[in-house]
């Protein structure tokens, strides 16, 4: 699903078709793969992925940008359950020059604002590797709280134990 944003967002923007090759290149970075798993299947081409994204009403992907608008990562709302008014969030800063500089935290806050204000969701959750202290620190700073420990599955299968964290509309200050 493609969504337009207002000018109040500084770190996220609508994902564009020409962003997809960069996302696919970052998906093959071993450091990112270890932390986030693979986003794309080996034989998937970006045209098919883009067409699938545009049609999918349960996924919304934003590009994360630096101060001059250059793409540095992505943040995705997925598994959107409209009746339950909840979604999972995933975030990745693909350009490692921007790690540990606050871009991910700021982008996540903006994605949550879009989730709660534009999409009217009530709950957003995420799964993070329990040994990924940098990410957990960022998520706590934004206001996520841990709710459970999980076994790794899906694209994180074989990794360390996962932590399930959540944020609710009321906790974000939009109650």
Overview of the structural elements:
- With 175 residues, the chain is an alpha+beta fold.
- The protein has a domain at 12-124: 3-Layer(aba) Sandwich (Aminopeptidase), CATH 3.40.630.30.
- 29% of the residues lie in helices and 27% in strands.
- The chain has helices at 20-27, 30-36, 46-55, 103-118, 133-142, and strands at 12-14, 60-65, 71-81, 86-93, 123-129, 145-150, 162-168.
- Strand 2 (60-65) and strand 3 form a beta hairpin.
- The longest helix has 16 residues, at 103-118.
- It is globular and about 35 Å long.
- The model has no long low-confidence stretch (mean pLDDT 85).
Short structural description:
With 175 residues, the chain is an alpha+beta fold.
Q: Order of strands across the widest beta sheet?
A: 1-2-3-4-5-7-6
CATH topology description of the domain at 12-124:
Aminopeptidase
Biggest β-sheet strands, sense, barrel: 7 strands, mixed
Q: What's the total number of strands?
A: 7
Q: Termini, distance in Å? A: 26 Å
The Rg value, from CA coordinates, equals 15 Å
What is the CATH architecture assignment of the domain at 12-124?
3-Layer(aba) Sandwich
């Amino acid at each position: 699903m493609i969504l337009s944003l207002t000018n109040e967002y500084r770190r996220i923007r609508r994902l564009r078709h020409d962003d997809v090759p960069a996302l696919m290149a970052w998906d093959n970075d071993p450091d990112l793969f270890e932390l986030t798993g693979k986003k794309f299947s080996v034989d998937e081409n970006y045209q098919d992925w883009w067409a699938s994204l545009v049609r999918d009403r349960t996924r919304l992907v934003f590009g994360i940008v630096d101060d001059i608008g250059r793409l540095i990562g992505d943040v995705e709302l997925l598994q959107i359950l409209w009746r339950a008014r909840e979604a999972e969030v995933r975030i990745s800063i693909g350009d490692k020059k921007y790690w540990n500089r606050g871009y991910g935290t700021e982008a996540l806050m903006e994605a949550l604002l879009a989730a709660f204000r534009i999409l009217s969701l009530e709950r957003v959750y995420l799964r993070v590797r329990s040994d990924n202290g940098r990410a957990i620190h960022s998520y706590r700073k934004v206001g996520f709280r841990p709710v459970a420990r999980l076994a790794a599955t899906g694209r994180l299968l074989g990794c360390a134990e996962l932590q399930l964290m959540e944020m609710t509309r009321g906790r974000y200050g939009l109650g």
